[in-house]
TrEMBL record:
Organism: Spirochaeta lutea
Descriptive protein name: Fis family transcriptional regulator
Gene Ontology MF annotations: ATP binding; DNA binding
Source domain of life: Bacteria
Keyword Lipid biosynthesis: no
SMART domains xrefs: AAA, GAF
Record SUPFAM superfamilies: GAF domain-like (SSF55781), Homeodomain-like (SSF46689), P-loop containing nucleoside triphosphate hydrolases (SSF52540)
Domain Sigma-54 factor interaction: start-end pairs: 195-424
């Protein structure tokens, strides 16, 4: 079979395709286009197509369509058994038809609709482990000649190449999905949150995370409420040499003023009225790991002064003790406040600000990284469906458009809430535009109060009223407490009691 100069060319092309398939060539469509095009050129077809079988729908879809009407062909699909390609898929056998008009299997609708005269077809199945996964076909042998058995043998070789490439890509994709699922489960078992993104903007943030991860410097993570600052802190920890050590999160806004020092640095028994036992501080607990101080903008000036000393000298003293302890943890900070403005207003120490701002990481708001919305939606949807034991019916295109249009003042946290709520309200697991209730998540009287007793209803009201004030103030508890006319410590207690997490 391999004796002419033409055959030598074919073999060279096959070798080249083989090495592409064996390399880490990840663009499957480009590879399949290359294979289909080579088959067409080397066996003298005028046009060629590669169709993939969707086993669920029992239909063949055009993955590649080359030739003068290629683009027009691509919108069609064929049922199994329909047309020459459908016959090949159904019988898992190759076929040469040199006069289509005389063959009842020929399906003329596509040719007629696109205005293309088809006279001859050569088609071969693509197989993975003997099962047909699609068809590769050539249309019209050039110069009004006929397709031959030799052409068919070559087409079968190209079909095998394509099947191999598809099989590789599917195994690769499956493995990637499994690795991602395992990573998610390992991270969430260890108390870390899986992080999803697809945007260039977030990619840039992650490249900084990787670079700072390996250093031991303290880092300041900035961004609006709900953008994922805590997750960034987790990733810095995971990228660091302390990844196996503890990751200790301290929400500075949730601690009453008088407790912060003891919480961070520890105290010895009797150092103040309530100190009935020695207490180990979070800095010590975080030894050989990372301490993440969230909402740093809420710290009092007195605590800021102590923190500055910790940063500058690397030592601290537990309350009531003269013993100096060495800081053995990596320190990360985050805030959604404008620290420069707080400095101007004299609510934040300038020297501490300069000390913190050495390596700032700015996490952009969700509205500035639209490419993340579909992946995050998908992730929250799958999680919510699994937790609520509902089928994942996917999301309608109009609903996705609405998500992409929305400004997301509460960022990723708000998106998560919107999706969870839409899943609760969806009868069949499909997320539709009207089920999203964008910007209207707080109080739906009918839904929340129905059948509840007075105390419960008051609590439901309190919870939603507080959440809406917190969101209005970017979850700043000091400002919210002032707006509500209560102490910040009382607000923290209410948040704990009413299970308001963010
Ligand atoms: N890229 C992401 N992938 C998956 N989940 C995310 C992502 N970003 C944020 N989330 C989720 O959104 C919620 C808010 O994230 P996180 O608490 O990290 O935000 P934050 O910026 O620290 O907010 P705050 O300033 O209010 O403390 C969490 O439930 C988190 O798991």
């Amino acid at each position: 079979m391999f004796n002419s100069a033409e055959d030598t060319k074919k073999i060279e092309t096959l070798i080249e395709l083989n090495s592409l398939i064996n390399s880490d060539y990840t663009d499957l469509n480009a590879l399949l286009t290359r294979i289909t095009e080579s088959a067409m050129i080397l066996t003298g077809g005028e046009a060629s197509s590669l169709l993939l079988l969707n086993t669920f729908e029992q239909k063949l879809y055009f993955e590649v369509a080359l030739g003068s009407k290629g683009d027009a062909v691509q919108k069609f699909s064929l049922k199994i058994g329909e047309g020459i390609a459908g016959w090949v898929a159904k019988h898992n056998k190759s076929l040469i038809v040199n006069d289509v008009e005389k063959d009842s299997r020929f399906f003329s609708d596509i040719s007629k609709s696109i205005g293309y005269k088809t006279s001859s077809i050569l088609a071969a199945p693509m197989r993975i482990k003997d099962a047909c996964i699609g068809v590769i076909e050539l249309i019209n042998k050039k110069n009004a000649r006929h397709f031959t058995e030799n052409d068919l043998q070559w087409l079968e070789i190209f079909a095998n190449q394509a099947a191999l490439a598809i099989s590789n890509a599917r195994v690769y994709q499956k493995t990637q999905n499994e690795i991602a699922a395992l990573q998610d489960s390992i991270q969430s078992h260890a108390g870390f949150h899986p992080l999803k993104f697809a945007s260039q903007e977030f990619e840039s943030v992650m490249s900084i995370v990787k670079r700072v991860g390996v250093t031991n410097s303290s880092v300041l993570i900035l961004g609006e409420s709900g953008v994922g600052k805590e997750l960034i802190a987790e990733q810095i920890h995971l990228a660091s040499k302390h990844a196996n050590g503890p990751f200790i999160r301290v929400n500075c806004a949730a601690l009453p003023e008088g407790m912060i020092e003891s919480e961070l640095f520890g105290h010895i028994k009797g150092s103040f009225t309530d100190a009935i036992n020695d207490r180990v501080g979070k800095f010590e607990t975080a030894s050989n790991g990372t301490i993440f101080l969230d909402e740093i903008g809420e710290l009092s000036l007195a605590v800021q002064a102590k923190l500055l000393r910790v940063l500058e000298e690397g030592i601290y003293e537990p309350l009531g003790s003269n013993e100096q302890k060495k800081v053995q943890a990596r320190i990360l900070f985050a805030t959604n406040r404008d620290l420069a403005k707080l400095v101007e207003e004299k609510h934040f120490r300038q020297d501490l600000y300069y000390r913190l701002n050495v390596i700032p990481i700015n996490v952009p708001p969700l509205r500035k990284r639209l490419a993340d919305i579909p992946v995050l939606t998908d992730f929250f949807l799958q999680n919510a469906c699994r937790e609520m034991n509902k089928p994942d019916g996917g999301i309608e295109a109009t609903a996705m458009e609405a998500l992409l249009d929305f400004p997301w003042p509460g960022n990723v946290r708000e998106l998560k809430n919107v999706i969870e709520r839409a899943v609760v309200l969806s009868p069949d697991g499909v997320i539709r535009r009207e089920g999203l209730q964008l910007g209207n998540q707080h109080l739906d009287k009918g839904l929340y109060f129905k059948g509840k007793r007075l105390k419960e209803s008051v609590n439901v009201f309190k919870k939603h009223f507080i959440i809406s004030c917190l969101e209005e103030n970017s979850w700043n508890q000091t400002i919210t407490a002032r707006q509500l006319g209560i102490q910040r410590t009382y607000l923290s207690r209410l948040m704990r009691e009413l299970e308001i997490n963010h």
